[in-house]
């Protein structure tokens, strides 16, 4: 059981890393690749595609859907390009009979032998202010995920604290507890949010930027049309 950063069943290259990563994958003849539905940039015409929704009723109630397209090389090897929605870096890990959790916005692609399911975070998710669902990726095979900004891999031993918004994913076996960064007062009266304290042994992947923080930074530069006074 474990994780392998070098092994792959699907030959691939990563282009334009780290700022605007694109994943180019070769799908062997007769094989299928699962891809986040909106991420296909280009593909060989011999590939066939079908889409399905993951998550069911619970996810529909949350107002979010996770659609996955399956691309099959039915008549010889074929290639495709996969581009995530956010500007940033793409990571890869080969799972060996184990599990990795990624933020629902971070899932990009995976081999068909991995089981992809939606996991409810419970009240921790409600109070974190982040998305309520994680994508659970289990089994043996390739997994690709993306970030907003750069990607940093952290080997956790014992304890590690990360702002919830920077978490891209983490390995099975790590336990976590979500709490205010410096008590409830900071949650309501400062710009700080919640942090996640991981404990145990495993890996955590974090991103170097936050989309909401960029929106706040850019807002003062936004052009606003002045209203004309009525005569």
Keywords summarizing the entry:
231 residues; four-stranded antiparallel sheet; globular; mainly beta; twelve-stranded antiparallel sheet; Double-stranded beta-helix
Q: Any overview of this molecule?
A:
With 231 residues, this protein is mainly beta. The chain has one domain (2-220): Mitochondrial biogenesis AIM24 (Double-stranded beta-helix, 4-Layer Sandwich). 11% of the residues lie in helices and 52% in strands. It is built from four helices and 16 strands. Strands 1, 4, 6, 7, 9, 10, 11, 12, 13, 14, 15 and 16 form a twelve-stranded antiparallel beta sheet that branches. The protein has a four-stranded antiparallel beta sheet with strand order 2-3-8-5, with no helix packed on it. A hairpin with a 6-residue loop joins strand 2 and strand 3. The longest helix has 8 residues, at 211-218. Residues 55-64, 122-132 and 184-191 have low confidence and may be disordered.
Q: Radius of gyration from the CA trace?
A: 20 Å
| Biggest sheet descriptor | 12 strands, antiparallel
Please state roughly what percent of the residues sit in beta strands, choosing from under 5%, 5-15%, 15-25%, 25-35%, 35-45% or over 45%.
over 45%
The top-level CATH class is Alpha Beta
What is the molecular shape? globular
Count of separate structural domains: 1
- Please estimate the helix content: 10-25%
What gap, in angstroms, lies between the N and C termini? 75 Å
Derived from helix and strand composition plus strand pairing, the structural class reads mainly beta
- The number of strands is 16
**CATH homologous superfamily?**
Mitochondrial biogenesis AIM24
CATH fold-level assignment: Double-stranded beta-helix
Quaternary structure of the protein: single chain
Number of helices: 4
CATH architecture classification name: 4-Layer Sandwich
Mean pLDDT: 82
């Amino acid at each position: 059981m474990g994780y392998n950063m070098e092994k792959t069943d699907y030959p691939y290259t990563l282009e334009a890393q780290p700022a605007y990563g694109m994943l180019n994958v070769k799908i062997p003849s007769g094989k299928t690749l699962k891809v986040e539905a909106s991420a296909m940039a280009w593909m060989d015409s011999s590939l066939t595609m079908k889409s399905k929704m993951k998550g069911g009723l619970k996810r529909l109630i949350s107002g979010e859907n996770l659609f996955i397209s399956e691309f099959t090389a039915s008549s010889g090897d074929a290639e495709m390009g996969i581009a995530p929605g956010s500007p940033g870096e793409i990571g890869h890990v080969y799972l060996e009979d184990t599990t990795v959790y990624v933020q629902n916005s971070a899932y990009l692609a995976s081999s068909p032998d991995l089981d992809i399911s939606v996991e409810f975070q419970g009240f921790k998710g409600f109070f974190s202010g982040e998305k309520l669902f994680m994508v659970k990726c289990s089994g043996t095979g390739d997994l690709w995920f993306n970030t907003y900004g750069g990607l940093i891999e952290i080997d956790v031993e014992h304890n590690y604290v990360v702002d919830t918004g920077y978490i891209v994913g983490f390995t099975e076996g790590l336990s976590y507890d979500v709490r205010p960064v410096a008590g409830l007062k900071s949650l309501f009266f400062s710009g700080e949010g919640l942090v996640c304290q991981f404990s145990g042994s495993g890996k955590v992947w974090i991103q170097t930027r936050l989309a909401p923080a960029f929106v706040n930074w850019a807002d003062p530069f936004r052009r606003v049309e002045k209203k004309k006074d009525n005569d």
